[in-house]
Amino acid sequence: MDMLTPARTWGVNDHKHTHPPELLERMRWPQRIAMLATVILPFLGFLGAIALLWHRQDGIFGIGWGEMIVMIVMYSIAGFGVTIGYHRLLTHKSFDCPRWVRLTLAIFGSSAAQGMTIRWVATHRRHHQLSDMDGDPHSPHTHGFDGLRGLIVGLWHAHIGWTFDVDRPNLERSVQDLLADKAMLFIDQLYLLWVALGIFIPAVALSLWTGTWEGFLAGMIWGGLLRIFLMLHVTWSINSVCHVFGSREFESSDHSTNNFPIALVSLGEGWHNNHHAFPTSARHGLRWWQFDSSYVIIKLMSYVGLAYNVRVPNEAAMQAKLKKPAAVETPEFAKVEASTQTVE
Q1: DSSP label at 251?
Q2: Residue range 78-121, pLDDT digits in tens
Q3: Contact at 8 Å (CB) between 287 and 263?
Q4: What is the pTM assigned to this prediction?
Q5: What torsion, rounded to 10 degrees, do the Cα atoms 116, 201, 104, 241 define?
Q6: DSSP assignment, residue 141?
C-alpha cells in the first residue's frame, strides 16, 4: 500500500530529507505549476463567462437560467464541502457525523479546487496556532512594513502570495489524525479527479438541458471554472480582508474581524472574529442577526442524524470573551490636580 503513504498522498514536507537546505526556502516547481494553474485557469473561465455574455439578451443580465442553476448548485456543493467539511468538521472538530458523511464532505470540498484535504486542514490548523504571528502561513501583518506599503504587501501575501510559499516545517504534525485515516488518504490521492468531476458534471448537466455542445461549454465555465474562481477569491478574502477590515466583538490574540459582506458570500465564514474567539464552535454567526448558512445546514443535518455533538459556546462563555473598551488615558495635568485636592 505504498500509494497511501503520507508523502505520496499529501506532498507536504516529504522533500525535507532529500533536497539541500537552499531548496527548502522555495516551493518545488511542480507545486508552483499546480498553484499557477489554480490561479490562472479559473481566471480564464471568468474571461470566458464574459465572452459568453456578449450580446446575450435572455436570462438575467444576459445570464441564462441554466448557467445560474449550475453555478448556484456547484457553488453550494463545493462551498459547503469546504466550510462544513474541510473547516468546521475536519479542522476544528466542531461536530461529529457518520463516517460516510465525513468522507463525502471531503470529496465535496476537494471539488472546490482549494487544495488536497489534509494539506488544507494542516495549513489552517497552523494558521490558528500562530495567527498573525511569525509562522502564520497567510497573515497580512508579519511583513515588517508600515503604512500603505505594509498594507498592500500584507494583503497581497494573505490573499494570493502565500499560495506559492513552501510549506511550513513539520506541518504534518498537525494532522496525524487524518494521516492515520486510510480512506481520507485515498480521497487525497484522487484529488484531481474530484476537481475534474466538479467541472465536468455541470458541463454534462447543462449540455443535457440545452441539447447542445454550447451548453457543455457554458456548464464547464459557469458551474466549473468561474465557480472555482469566485470561491477561491472569497476564501482568500477571509485570510486578507477579514484580518484587516471589519469589526471585533470578542477578544482574540490576533487581528481577525467580522465582515458582513464577506460572511454572506463565504457561507458564514466571514464572521471571522467570532471564529477565532471560539474556534471549535460549529456556529460562526453567534448573534441572531449574523446569518451563517453553513450553521443552518449543520443544524438541519442534526435534525436527521447526520450531525451530532454540535459544539456552540453558551452565553456565559461569550460574555467572558467580549472585547473590553479601550482604557481612556487620563492627562498628566489632571492626575496632578487630583492628587493635590483636599477633602473637607
Answers
A1: -
A2: 999 999 999 999 999 999 999 999 999 999 999 999 989 999 99
A3: no
A4: 0.83
A5: 50
A6: S
